[in-house]
Amino acid sequence: MPEYELLYWPVSGLAEPIRLTFVVAGIPFKDTTPLTDPEFNDRKLALHPYAPDAAGLPILVFDGKVCCQSRAILRYIGRLAQHEGAFLYPTEDPLEQLLCDELIDLSEDLRRPMSATVTTQYKDAAEKEAARRALLAADGECTKFLKVLDKKFGECFPTKLTIGNIYAWSIVTMFRQPTFIPEIPADALSPYENLTKLHQWMSSLPAIKAYYESSQGRDNYKPL
Amino acid sequence: MPEYELLYWPVSGLAEPIRLTFVVAGIPFKDTTPLTDPEFNDRKLALHPYAPDAAGLPILVFDGKVCCQSRAILRYIGRLAQHEGAFLYPTEDPLEQLLCDELIDLSEDLRRPMSATVTTQYKDAAEKEAARRALLAADGECTKFLKVLDKKFGECFPTKLTIGNIYAWSIVTMFRQPTFIPEIPADALSPYENLTKLHQWMSSLPAIKAYYESSQGRDNYKPL
C-alpha cells in the first residue's frame, strides 16, 4: 500500500471526510497541517498541482502523484477502502453509487452558502454573524437543505457505511457546536431528528469513536 | 433498459453533460423542457424529490425512481454507458476514476463563479455585464480555472471518452459564443490552445457531431 499524506488546515472542513474514510478502513495516512509541519506553506505551494494559478486545499500525495480535489480524493480512497467487507464508494452497484453520490452532492448544496460566508469580506464581526445566522433562519439557504437531508435520512436510514454518509455527516457537523465556525447558533441542528439519529450512529461506530477520543478540536464529532 | 426522462430548461447548462452521455452511448432518453411539455412546471414540482424545500433542475426519472443531483445522475448514467467498449465513468480502475472525478470537480471550480452571477440580483444590465466580464479578466475567478484546465489538457490530452472530458467540455463551452449567457465576450476562450484542441476533438466525434447537426441553440458545440 502506498504512503498517503494529506495536507490541510488544522480543522475538519473538506479534509475530515477523507480522514474518516482512512480511519474507518484502517488505512494509515500522514495528517499534515501547519501545526505539525513548520514548512507547511512552502510545501503546499511546491506540491500544488494548480500552482501558480490556484492553490486550494486539501492535497493528497501518494506514489509520486498529487491530487487537490477533495471529492475526487474522497471517491478514490473510498474505492479502495473497505468497512465490514464492503467498499466505502460502492461503484459495483450503480443504484448504491447513485444514492452515495446524491448524498455527497446534496451536502455540497448545504455547504456552499456557508462556504460563501467564509470567502466574503464583511465590514465587521456583527455583519458576518448576521450573514451566518440568516443562512439558518426559517427561509435560510442552509435551512432548506438541512430539511431535505433530514427528510432523506428519515425515509432511508443507512444500513452500511459509505463515503456518502461520511460526507453528509461531516458537512452537517460543521453546523454543530463547538465547531470551527463560531457564529453558528448552538441549537442549529436541534430541529432535525434524523440528523441527530445519524450523528449518534456515526459517532458511536467503534473506529470513529476511538479516533475522536484522542483528537483535538473535534468535540462536535462525539456522541451527544 | 428502463425508459429515461430528463427534465431541464431548454439550454445546455447542467443537463448537457447527461444528454451527451446518453447520446455517445446510444441510449435513448426523453429530453423534456418547457418547450416540449406545456405541463413542465407542474410536473417538475410534482416529481421533485426535494419539494417543497428545494426544486433545482435537472431531474432524471426512470423505473419509478427520481434523482435531481446533476453530477450524481451523470455518474450513474456514465457507469452504465459505454463508448468504444469502455464505460464512460471508469470506476474499475481507481486512477482512471480519480482523473475523471478531478476533471468534474475542476469544471465545478470554473462553473461556480459564473453560476453566482446567475443567482445574484444586479441593479441593471450594465452591472451584470461588468460582473461577468470581471470573471474573465486577467486575475478573474474563471480565468484562473480556465488556465488550470488548459494546462491539464496540455499535459495529458484524453485518449478515450469519459464523463470527465464530457463535463469539462460542456462547462467550458458555456464560455464560447453563441452561448445562452450573452454577456460572455466572443473571444473568451481564444487564449486557450488545449481547450480549443479539446473542442475540435469532442465536437468532431461522429455521435456528437450528428447530434448537434440537428439541435437548436447549440452552435457553440459545433467544430470551429
What does this structure look like?
The structure is a homodimer of 224-residue chains. With 224 residues, the first copy, chain A, is α+β, with helices and mostly antiparallel strands. The first copy, chain A, folds into two domains: 82 residues, Glutathione S-transferase Yfyf (Class Pi), Chain A, domain 2 (Up-down Bundle), CATH 1.20.1050.130; 116 residues, Glutathione S-transferase Yfyf (Class Pi), Chain A, domain 2 (Up-down Bundle). Chain A has nine helices and six strands; from the N terminus they run E-H-E-H-E-E-H-E-E-H-H-H-H-H-H. A four-stranded mixed beta sheet of chain A has the order 2-1-3-4. A two-stranded antiparallel sheet of chain A has the order 5-6. The first copy, chain A, is globular. The model of chain A has no long low-confidence stretch (mean pLDDT 96). At the A-B interface, helix 3, helix 4 and helix 6 of A face helix 3, helix 4 and helix 6 of B.
